[in-house]
């Protein structure tokens, strides 16, 4: 791999949220934007090249200067010499959410990537039947940035939401999905 091909500066963030500084990466295959899905993680793969580093591991993130967040997936060391890596990544979509843990509406707070998912029915019982309860909204957060807690309020696009419940069935080590209610729209 020639150094000239690594021309995108990206911050490397581990799955636990530790910042490992900037790395130069090369994005060799862009994802198509035609098949966007609801939720934070998009299914299209983006191939990234980078110099070998022990800190680059699945579940981590690359945050580029142009605002893209790439979730690190399978990693290949093509020569086995710990020089270069070929990394399969997925784009995180969604908006920036401002977290207000106090619920006091403070303007300054933690920011995190968030995807608001449309109205969904909850499941109940051992057979996971759809409940007859009213449809509720869900949100997804990237755990490397923020781990949601019940009772926390956050704002996305001038709309304030409250986290009512963590959906442990739909959450993973990378993404936490929550049931939310709208508190206020501006």
Mean pLDDT: 83
Structural class by SSE content: mainly beta
How much of the residues is beta strand, in percent? over 45%
Q: What's the number of domains?
A: 2
Number of helices: 0
Largest sheet: number of strands, sense, barrel closure: 6 strands, antiparallel, barrel
Report the helical percentage: under 10%
Write down the Rg: 18 Å
Q: How are helices and strands ordered from N to C?
A: EEEEEEEEEEEEEE
- Side by side, the strands of the main sheet go 1-2-3-6-5-4
Number of strands: 14
Principal-axes shape call: elongated
First and last CA, distance: 50 Å
- Residue stretches low in confidence (pLDDT < 50, at least 5 long) are none
Short description:
With 186 residues, this protein is mostly beta strands. It has strands at residues 8-13, 19-29, 41-51, 61-64, 69-76, 84-92, 95-100, 110-120, 123-124, 129-130, 136-142, 153-156, 159-166, 175-185. It is built from no helices and 14 strands.
């Amino acid at each position: 791999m020639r150094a000239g091909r690594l021309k995108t500066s990206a911050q490397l963030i581990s799955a636990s949220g530790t910042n490992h500084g900037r790395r130069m990466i090369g994005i060799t295959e862009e994802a198509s934007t035609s098949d966007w899905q609801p939720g934070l993680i998009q299914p299209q793969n983006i191939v990234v090249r980078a110099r070998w580093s022990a800190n680059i591991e699945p579940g981590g993130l690359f945050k580029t200067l142009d605002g893209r967040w790439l979730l690190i997936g399978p990693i290949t060391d093509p020569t086995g010499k710990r020089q270069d890596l070929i990394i399969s990544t997925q784009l995180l979509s969604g908006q920036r959410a401002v977290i207000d843990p106090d619920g006091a509406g403070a303007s300054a707070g933690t920011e995190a990537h968030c995807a608001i998912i449309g109205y969904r029915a909850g499941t109940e019982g051992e057979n996971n039947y759809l409940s007859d309860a009213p449809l509720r909204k869900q949100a997804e957060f990237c755990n490397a940035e923020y781990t949601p807690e019940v009772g926390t309020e956050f704002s996305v696009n001038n709309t304030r939401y409250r986290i009512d419940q963590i959906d442990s069935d739909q959450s993973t080590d990378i993404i936490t999905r929550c049931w939310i209610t709208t508190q206020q729209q501006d």
